């Protein structure tokens, strides 16, 4: 696994709406700042504009002006191409996409690039035919429009992001950050992604299948009240834990705990535990030379066979194959178990 080059498409360079800067800033933040203590080399980020490298023009209307050093031709040859958004006129007025963008996306994909969209950037990938026959998502406010314009796309409006191998799409706003951290996790491993998320003060891992819609009727104090018990559980993943155990620790009935956790996170308590255990197993496989049986024990997944089952189902490779992607890390860390809390 390696970082590689990331080309981010800037579809509007003059009068960029302030709300579109959020999606654009996400890949710049995740991939643009070197993190030599986590991985060296880090990603090579390139901002590719429709008129990349051209003369500055005066901004028209509200918004910002950007000048990008690269153009659409620079998408070809990048390891990853990200389309954060498309101009509002393309959505609201049915205006065509910027000239040359669709062709550039097709050429980049044909050259082997991993194609990614954030929010309504999915409309660009769909126009290029890259989502035909695939499951994809976008911001829930635009998914019906995406499905109507591109009936060959299997639009799913209920998830944060969809990883279809060489083509990935996300919902809007913070779901784009989830997808970018997911890419780091794929490229450089769970440890690097978790440390980067910690520096950004965001959740380390929200699975793509988590719902876009969170029940906001749950008071904020409820979410805060769950934090201590979830942290308590993370420190004891190697121990048998049930919903009843967690509910008792939270001083709730199992039914109330189940309802509140699902409303706050979009997932069930058992799925949340499984996600945490898989993340612990990934970290141990990356950073230690512990036997597979010991990794299963310390992550709470039990036997080596059970670890392999869940790893193949959720991660797509066996624990041994996953470890082979991180030979330097696992060889550099002593074969010892992490300290267990009292």
Describe this structure in words.
The chain is an alpha/beta fold and 342 residues long. The protein folds into 2 domains: 5-200, Class I glutamine amidotransferase (GATase) domain (Rossmann fold), CATH 3.40.50; 216-342, Orthogonal Bundle (Arc Repressor Mutant, subunit A). It contains 15 helices and 8 strands. Helix 1 runs parallel beside helix 6 (174-188).
Can you lay out the helices and strands and say which pair or pack?
Layout: E1 5-10, H1 20-32, E2 44-49, E3 80-83, H2 88-92, H3 101-110, E4 114-117, H4 122-127, E5 135-136, H5 143-149, E6 154-155, E7 161-163, E8 167-170, H6 174-188, H7 190-200, H8 220-234, H9 243-249, H10 254-265, H11 269-287, H12 292-299, H13 304-314, H14 319-324, H15 327-332
Parallel strand pairs: 1-2, 1-3, 3-4, 4-8, 5-6
Antiparallel strand pairs: 7-8
Helix pairs in contact: 1-6, 6-7, 9-10, 11-12, 12-13
Could you name the key traits of this structure?
two-stranded parallel sheet, 342 residues, 15 helices, Rossmann fold, Arc Repressor Mutant, subunit A, alpha/beta
Q: What Rg, in angstroms, do the CA atoms define?
A: 21 Å
Structural domains: how many: 2
Number of helices: 15
Record the strand order, biggest sheet: 2-1-3-4-8-7
**Strand composition percent:** 5-15%
Low-confidence stretches: 53-62, 213-223, 329-339
Q: What proportion of the residues is helical, as a percent range?
A: 40-55%
């Amino acid at each position: 696994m390696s970082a590689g080059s990331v080309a981010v498409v800037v579809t509007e360079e003059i009068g960029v709406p302030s709300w579109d800067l959020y999606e654009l800033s996400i890949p710049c933040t995740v991939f643009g700042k070197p993190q030599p203590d986590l991985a060296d080399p880090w990603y090579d980020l390139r901002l590719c504009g429709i008129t990349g490298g051209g003369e500055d023009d005066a901004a028209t209307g509200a918004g910002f002006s950007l000048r990008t050093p690269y153009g659409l031709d620079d998408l070809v040859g990048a390891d990853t191409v990200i389309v954060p958004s498309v101009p509002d006129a393309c959505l609201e007025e049915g205006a065509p996409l910027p000239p040359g963008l669709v062709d550039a996306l097709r050429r980049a994909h044909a050259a082997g690039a991993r194609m990614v969209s954030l929010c309504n950037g999915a409309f660009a990938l769909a126009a290029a035919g890259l989502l035909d026959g695939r499951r994809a998502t976008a911001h829930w406010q635009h998914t019906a429009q995406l499905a109507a314009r591109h009936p060959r796309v299997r639009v799913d409006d209920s998830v944060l992001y969809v990883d279809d191998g060489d083509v990935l799409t996300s919902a809007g706003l913070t779901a784009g950050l989830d997808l970018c951290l997911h890419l780091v996790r794929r490229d450089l491993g769970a440890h690097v992604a978790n440390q980067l998320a910690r520096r950004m003060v965001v959740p380390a891992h929200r699975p793509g299948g988590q719902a876009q819609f969170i029940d906001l009727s749950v008071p904020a104090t409820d979410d805060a009240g769950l934090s201590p018990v979830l942290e308590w559980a993370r420190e004891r993943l190697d121990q048998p834990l049930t919903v009843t155990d967690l509910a008792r620790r939270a001083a709730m009935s199992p039914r109330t705990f189940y309802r509140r956790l699902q409303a706050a996170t979009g997932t069930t308590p058992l799925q949340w535990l499984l996600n945490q255990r898989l993340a612990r197993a990934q970290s141990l496989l990356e950073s230690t030379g512990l036997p597979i049986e010991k990794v299963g024990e310390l992550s709470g997944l039990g036997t080596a066979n059970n670890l392999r089952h869940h790893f193949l189902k959720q991660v797509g490779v066996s624990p041994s194959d996953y470890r082979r992607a991180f030979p330097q890390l696992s060889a550099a860390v002593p074969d010892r178990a992490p300290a267990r809390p009292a």
